[in-house]
Structure formats: C-alpha cells, structure tokens
C-alpha cells in the first residue's frame, strides 16, 4: 500500500515502518516469517472481529493484519480525539478512500483528490434538506410500491429491494426525477453495479503485490468501466441539456446536479463543468450513499422484526408515526421527521450493534515527520490508524446490556441527555438532544470529528422515512432467528440472500 500511496518514497522510510510494526503490540502474536504473515493476513478475512475484541481489552494501541493491505494500528478511544481533530496535513481520510477504491487504477484519482462532491454535500445538500423531504418521501413510496407491492402477501429479497428503494430516494435528490425514474430507470441499475464492481476491483487489486497491480488492474476494472460507459451513455445527454439551460433561462430544478452546475458556473470551473466529470461526480455520490444506507436500513429491519419484543417495538413505532403524520396534515416534512424519536432510536440502536465497519475513523498519517500521540507513542508517516468502533459500541462501560437490541434505548433517555453539537451545515454549535446524526466518542458509525460523514443528515431522513413507511404500510414476517451478518475482514454485512414475507396492511 505504501507504494500505491507514496510511490516515490525513499527506502529508509519503509524500513522505519517495518521497525515500527515489529515494535507494536499485536492482537495476536506478530508472525515472524513472511509465510506466517501471509497466512495471518488471509485468516484476518474471518478473524478480524475476534482480534479486535482481544486487542480492545489491552487498553493500548495494537496492530491487526489486513488481508488486502498493510496492517492497521488500532487506537483506544482515549487517543481518538487527538487524531480526529488533527489537520489534513497531519492525517488524511481521502487517502484511505483512495486506497479502498483503488482510485489510481479506476481513473478516479482526480475525483478523490478534488473533493468537490464532499463540499456539495456539506454546503448544499444539508442546506436544502428541509425542502426536499416531500420529494424523497414521494420517491420512496414509489420504490416500495415497485419492490414490496400493494396487493397480497409477497416474498421479497430484503437487501436488494432496500438497495433499489434507497437508490431511488437518493438519486431523486442527486439528479432529479429525470434520471432516477422517468427517462431511464437503467441509470440507477448501472450506477449500483458500477459501485459494486469498483469495490470488487479494488479488493482484487489491493490483494496483489504493488508491482503486479498495473498489470491486473485493466482486467479487474473492466466490469466497472463497462458500467461507467452505460451510465455515461444515459446521463451525459441529459447533463448536456442541463448545461445549455443553465447558461440561459430560469431553471426550476432543485437537485445536487443543478447546484453543482451552478456552483461551477459561478467559479468558472471548466474542468468540473465537463459532462463526463459531472456524471462521475454523481457516481461518486452514489458510491458514498447507497450501500451504506442500504446496509443500515436492512439491519434495522432485521433487528426490529426478529427481536423477542417485536410486537411492543412495532406497536410503539406505529403509534408514533401515525400520531406524527396526522399532526402534520398527512404529509411528511422535516419537522415531522425530527419528531420521530422512537424511529430514530430504533435505527440508531441497530447501527450501534451492527455497524458495517468493525473499525472506523480510519486515517493515514500524512505528516512527513510522523505523529506523537499523548507523548506515549510515535506513529510514522504512511501508517493507517483506526478505532475499534464495534468493540466500543458493545462495551458495558458505555451501554447497559450492550448485546441486547433495545429499539427504544435512545428515545427513553433522549431528553435526559442534552448535548451541544454542530448544525448540519457546520454552523455554530447549538444545544440539542443527541439523535442518530450526533456523533460522539461512543457512537461512531458516521465517524467523528472534522471528517464525520456529511451525508448523515440526509441518510437519517431517508432511513426514518423508510422505516416509518414499513411500519405504517406493511406486516413483515421473518422466520427463525436473526440471520447472522457476514464478516469480511473489518466489514460486517447483512446476508444479501435473506427473503422476508411482506403483506400490505388494510
Ligand atoms: C447510513 C448511511 C451512511 C453511513 C453509515 C456513512 C458512514 C460514513 C463514514 C463512517 C464516513 C467516514 C467518516 C470518518 O472517518 O470520520 C463517511 C464519509 C462520507 N460520507 Fe457517509 N455514510 C452514510 C451515508 C452517506 C450519504 C447518504 C452520503 C451522501 C449524500 C454520504 C457522503 C459521505 C461523504 C462525501 C464522506 C466523506 C467526508 C469527508 O471526506 O470529509 N454518506 N460516511
């Protein structure tokens, strides 16, 4: 990974990092030989969770192997604050993204290094959220009708159907109804496949030694390149029409594509105004938004409907959603969604127990001199650090009965816990109650600190609308115990083959 990120780095630096890893505590004992190290890397595919729990108990920094790259240094919570408040000159999140998506080989290096889409979410999307709620709710309702039906009992693939619904809701906001529904539904399908293919290609490329990567990458990235061509064929003509119109008369469009075009025109940014670049920005947004949200809402539905207390929980949620919807004239708006404290809690509780990353707040040290943390440890340039978020979320010091899914865990205590946090657009801190979007030292699914997920306000709105729609409109049955999530390295994913039975409520 070192060569991938810093190809021109001199050899002494590599040796220094080698000494660093040798001197660290390992969750398992550090294998001495190259062959043993390779075995431990391979076994980390299934053993990462175990290693993280073991290491967490040591209360000191420890290293774990990664099957597709260099080891990661896991920091205890006490060190995290220092890392997440550091400037981008000291630590970098984009470099982690660059590596995880093999951006150098997929042609996305420029996109990742120039995070126009990140600014778009921070400044524009969050500012416009209030007036987008009705559109999102409308698109999600159509998505449920298409995927879960409105007639009789139906068996549906939970993960796939959620992903299709999430992708409709998100793209309605990213690029409007034109691309997400009416003109060509294939855009959504190809953009989902593009993301899947990029992650698969990146995993393959990162498995290979650095010298082999340029050779295998054309093959590994071929499926994603094909999907990209399909997406371009659909989106570029529409983007060209938008571009022509944006230079002329008044435009009534209110979506991310339009905000992006208008921003670029104001800045006179010819590179970003290229239709293919705009299409790639849309795909990058999809990459950040779709799988994360689909995994989280799938987990939330699985947890809710396989809990021993399903009847009480679903009853409580239904009562809250009916009451709130009636109070807002039968139409969802931002105020109504903010009032859904039990729904918020049910999703937050599921995300606490099933965060899709067993580790989080990943950063690569970019200060050429390395970093001194707390005067106790020196971490060299190029090392990746992270926090063991799943272990923190299951620590009895922070959560009572941490292994139990209690849908109302956060709504019961919500008004007792007043905290200060930043507004969605990064505005001045205001007093408010902690909800799904409030990151903290002990709730880390959206990261924490300067780079905490800027899309979480939108994701929270979309997931709450989805769960409210499910409890209000469907009876859901999942036979047997909760299907276990599958761990792949430090990722934990719901079983995508699970079928659930759904029946519209009369
Ligand atoms: C349940 C859904 C989601 C989860 C769990 C999630 C999680 C995360 C996490 C863990 C990070 C890294 C934060 C850190 O390391 O401190 C992140 C970053 C990011 N997320 Fe999300 N995300 C979700 C949905 C979204 C959505 C819907 C969008 C777009 C609308 C989005 C856009 C981004 C962007 C642009 C970044 C990069 C931020 C930066 O570089 O400063 N995410 N997300």
From TrEMBL:
Residues annotated for heme binding in this entry: 453
Gene3D superfamilies in the record: Cytochrome P450
Coiled-coil features, chain-numbered ranges: none
Keyword vocabulary terms for this entry: Heme, Iron, Metal-binding, Monooxygenase, Oxidoreductase
GO MF term set: heme binding; iron ion binding; monooxygenase activity; oxidoreductase activity, acting on paired donors, with incorporation or reduction of molecular oxygen
Cofactor(s) this protein requires: heme
PROSITE patterns named in the record: CYTOCHROME_P450
Family: Belongs to the cytochrome P450 family.
Protein name: Putative P450 monooxygenase
Organism: Aureobasidium pullulans EXF-150
